[in-house]
Amino acid sequence: MNIPDVVNSTDSFLIGSSNLDESYLNATLFQDYDNSSSSFMNNSWNISQEQGKVYSQLSLVYQVIPKVLAILGTVGNVLTFIVFLWSKSLRKTALAQFLLALAVTDTLLLWLHLLYTLTASGDLEIRSAVACKVLVWLTDTVTYVSSWLIVTVTFNRFIVIVLPLRATRWCQKRNARIAIFVIVSVFSLVSIYNFWAWDDVFVSKKYYMCKMTRKELIRPRIIMVIVLFSLLPSLTLFTMNGIIMKNLSEALSKQAVYRASFNKQKVKGVQRQLDILLLTLSFSFLILTLPLTLVDIVIFSMYDDTSVLPRDDIFVRLYMSREILNIFSLTNNCLIFPLYCVSGRKFRGELKSVFCRIKLRLEQNVERDPPPDAL
């Protein structure tokens, strides 16, 4: 596949936090360097042969790491889901409802990104217009929901620490489920424009691409993804975490018990572990996603015409930087399980209990169905 064979635009299928087009670069720039001469690279793109080699090596990283993250993240998220479902003490809280939903959306996002990687590299094609529309709509929805679930998790802890007298009424399991339903519904409606803005397009002799056919929506879409996925959630998290840390600092300086009035039997150490866990989850989101968003803003401000992909050296450097940052952003969807294992002693105990139950059931099945030699 050569670059002239692929439509030169920034409106191809996007995935996760990828706000600009990636498919044609990953499907052509890297692949063609391996299959063609360096002169092709130099003539088509204003980059050196050494840069072409670097980009070719980065393409391997880009194709391998999402697969590894999808597997590891899925295992961790599934274990988190099982632990919360099996543990009555963990799943009865409002916070558990948000973390269960976050485990589901993170897993979906990892596999949607992997699906995109396969389509961008040409290993998988989308030949159905309906599949194209549904895939982009689902990707946008899950991306937004994943970000705002982290906001709701932080808001839940914000209420407990800053407004403890209202925590009993607000931080309930039922209210958490209503909040999750509202978030999913709102962003499903926000992303519904994808059903008439995208289509499956035949762009070469043997290549199909999911593309935005309404080019006037390209720039508004980029702005919307940047704002709803990163900027607005980040600003909200910065504000709430700042207030939370201020209140915790004042409480510690006065040697006061954390004011979780809805459950006075909790030990201070357990509360401190939970606070550290949720603060780490929030700040990891900020650290892993904001740099990608800032690079997108730079690209967006430097290149006014986003319907035609530039080929200058500055853009290629910026683009490759954001591809690396995109991988870091993807790791944000794998963090719940390791964070809980590190900071949650109760979670580790419940996880051990889950494995013990599985082992016990396996032993019971073996005793129930002995091997033929034992008969």
TrEMBL record:
Q: Report what the protein is called.
A: P2Y purinoceptor 8
Q: Does the keyword Transmembrane apply?
A: yes
Q: Where are the transmembrane segments?
A: 64-86, 98-118, 145-166, 178-198, 218-238, 276-303, 323-342
- Where is the organism placed in the taxonomic lineage, from the top? Eukaryota, Metazoa, Spiralia, Lophotrochozoa, Brachiopoda
Where is it found, in Gene Ontology cellular component terms? plasma membrane
The superkingdom listed in its UniProt entry is: Eukaryota
SUPFAM superfamilies referenced in this protein's UniProt entry, alphabetically: Family A G protein-coupled receptor-like
Q: Which family does it belong to?
A: Belongs to the G-protein coupled receptor 1 family.
Q: Which gene encodes it?
A: LOC106168816
Keywords linked to the UniProt accession = G-protein coupled receptor, Membrane, Receptor, Transducer, Transmembrane, Transmembrane helix
Residues of the G-protein coupled receptors family 1 profile domain: 76-340
| Compartments, as annotated in UniProt | Membrane
Which PROSITE patterns does UniProt cross-reference here?
A: G_PROTEIN_RECEP_F1_1, G_PROTEIN_RECEP_F1_2
Does the keyword field hold Transmembrane?
Answer: yes
One function term, GO molecular function aspect: G protein-coupled receptor activity
**Pfam short name (any one):** 7tm_1
Q: How does it sit in the membrane?
A: Multi-pass membrane protein
